[in-house]
Amino acid sequence: MNPVLAELHDKARAVLDPVHYDFFAGGVGDEVVLAENEAAFRRLALLPRVLRGKQNSAEFPVLISPTAFHRLAHPDGELATARAAGGTVLVSGMASTVPIADVVAAATGPVWFQLYLQPDPRVTEALVRRAERAGCAALVITVDSPVFGRHRRDIAHGFHDLPAGLAAENMRDLAGVTGLRKIEMAACSWQDVDRLRELTSLPVWLKGVLHRQDAVLAVEHGVAGIFVSNHGGRQLDVVPAALDALPAVVHAVGGRIPVVLDGGVRSGADIALAVALGASAAGIGRPVLWGLAADGEAGVRRVLDVLRDEFQHVLALCGGELGPDMVVVR
Length: 330
Ligand SMILES: Cc1cc2nc3c(=O)[nH]c(=O)nc-3n(C[C@H](O)[C@H](O)[C@H](O)COP(=O)(O)O)c2cc1C
Ligand SMILES: CC(C)CC(=O)C(=O)O
Fold this sequence. Notes:
The protein has helices at residues 3-15, 18-25, 32-42, 77-85, 100-106, 121-134, 152-157, 190-199, 212-220, 242-253, 268-276, 286-317; strands spanning 44-46, 62-64, 89-93, 111-115, 138-142, 204-209, 225-228, 259-262, 281-284, 327-329. The protein is an alpha/beta fold. The structure holds flavin mononucleotide and 2-OXO-4-methylpentanoic acid.
């Protein structure tokens, strides 16, 4: 791992309450998928192209994946993440400890809003209006969570709720309820996706697609793009590594909509492998949390800077191009 990212992770582990560290670091079940997400990248190699001349690319195909409760990592929470994002798309979570309007106000680049469709459609609509009013550029519905994942580390610690003083601020005073509403999950259907699309003119993405048939359905239902994601190994512990699920989805989508990959991306080379296999961008989850915990805004900025620098270096060494013909199994 890049020494800067390793240092930020070590520092995060040292400064965080161990219960909160485990909430961020942990996965579901035996944490097989958590480990596999990273291991999948190590199983692949890139065959660079040569003699392609000088390639100048400022491209940085990365976005910040939504993660919950940033004020558990650092007092500035999502405000620090937003300030550090620069021009990188920040997918801000519904489970943010700062209201979405304040996140967007702190950001200098595009902010998308991630949500779980709520059992009460009025609550979903109120959240969508909040995201619209705040100025979010897209909505991302997370569809891999009809129920909560069972995280053994959290269960062992008895960690079920935010400490006093922190709250899921986007849920405050929603749909006639005074005070805080809890985040809920719901088993939704394609009809709910259609309904959401009718409710808003914002582009609607889906996050947590692994099956090729669902990718085809997403295209048919007018979805703007999809995230191939297993939620960072936090939902079902028998799914493939996210990277291993990518090629079939990319093939099924056939270029009709963009496909983002998240899960286990830890280096510029990982970003390059995802892009070579057809991802339009790679989403970064935990490394952003480690940067945030270690050093607030500056820490998140360092994570993005390291990944950008590494990716551009790998791209230059690959002759400025990436494609599926360049990926081989080790
Ligand atoms: C602590 C934590 C909280 C997360 N919260 C959310 C969330 O609220 N909504 C969501 O769609 N995904 C959530 N995710 C999943 C991330 O968006 C992303 O899919 C995953 O972290 C990517 O894997 P990585 O951490 O290996 O980069 C969370 C992940 C972590 C680690
Ligand atoms: C608390 C949840 C809403 C967020 C989370 O931890 C997850 O999605 O993995």
